[in-house]
Amino acid sequence: MGGADPAESAQWAVEMSDAAVRLGGSEIWSGVDFQAREGELVAVLGPNGAGKSTLLHVLLGLLAPSKGSVRVLGGAPGAHNEQIGYLPQRRVFDETTRVRGVDLVRMGLDGSRWGVPLPAVGPWASRARAARARVQEAIGQVGAEEYARRPIGECSGGEQQRLLIAQALVRRPRMLILDEPLDGLDIPNQVAVTALVQRICREQGVAVLLVAHDVNPLLPYLDRILYLAGGKALAGTPEQVITGETLSALYGTPIEVLRTADGRMVVVGHPEGHHAHGPRHVLG
Ligand SMILES: Nc1ncnc2c1ncn2[C@@H]1O[C@H](COP(=O)(O)OP(=O)(O)O)[C@@H](O)[C@H]1O
Ligand SMILES: [Mg+2]
Q1: How far apart are CA 254 and CA 78, in angstroms?
Q2: Which of 231, 235, 233 is nearest to 27 (CA)?
Q3: How far is the CA of 52 from the centre of ligand 1 (A)?
């Protein structure tokens, strides 16, 4: 690949070279070669248990690779975590949760403690004002103004997910790491949240790593894909990675990639497709 120019290589958000990781004595994956640039939207895909969340933990410096090298935003994993907005896997709020969306977003600014607002007097006043403005800005970015003051438990799944993304955005990160942000959403909401994430990615040059199960609703939006399956990885652009041959080999089961008349791709027979949809669900 290109990128011999050193100024260009400084723009890598993630660089993994022959990386491997072990957990509880067993190797989860190995031989991972993967790079993503700042401003790219990357999907991390693969079956349950393939090590997708584990890969995110490695990028955040929570777990050291057992082999190879890993760099994040030009430094060691963990060195730039204050520039990363992280949404951990699956957080559900039941209807008894009284915390409001605005409070949840604010937690992203305060370091994830429930409450303890800054006092709005004395030297703190301008900081508190700035904090409120940041929270409002993040809520605006995800279009959540209408329901941000409702208890989060009363918001729909899609609304909760937008507020959680706002929480990850509130510090104006250079990189967003979202672990299954589309889980539990219906197809229209999966598409809407993906489009929203792509807009943030494009407008602010934020690198986004998004873990997902079902590739089809994402396909039109992705710059790059990292597949993890059977302890191995496959990375590249959607054109490179999404072929019947590569996916069948990776999953060890027949997978077909269909092309619609206007050039969109649809993956059929994908073992992880929760919704088992066929070509009639093509979205583009
Ligand atoms: N602390 C641990 N010790 C041993 N194995 C673990 C530990 N945590 C997770 N695993 C295993 O690592 C694998 C990858 O898990 P995970 O990264 O959560 O997968 P994914 O996010 O792709 O579903 C799974 O097989 C899981 O059982
Ligand atoms: Mg996971």
Answers
A1: 39
A2: 231
A3: 8
Tens digit of each residue's pLDDT (9 = 90 or more) over 206-256: 999 999 988 888 988 999 999 999 899 999 999 898 888 888 887 778 888
Mean pLDDT within 119-123: 54
**0.90 exceeded by pTM:** no
Tokens 């050291």 identify what position? 64
User: Which of helix, strand or coil describes residue 82?
Assistant: helix
pLDDT > 70: percent of the chain: 86
> Strands, DSSP E only, in 60-127?
67-72, 84-87
Which listed ligand is nearest to 231 at the C-alpha? 1
The SS3 assignment for 32 reads: strand
Domains of the chain and any CATH numbers: 1-80+174-254 (3.40.50.300), 93-173 (no CATH)
62 lines ligand 1 (CB under 6 A): no
Instruction: Indicate whether residue 53 lines ligand 1 (CB < 6 A).
Output: yes
What is the gyration radius of the CA atoms in the chain, in angstroms? 19
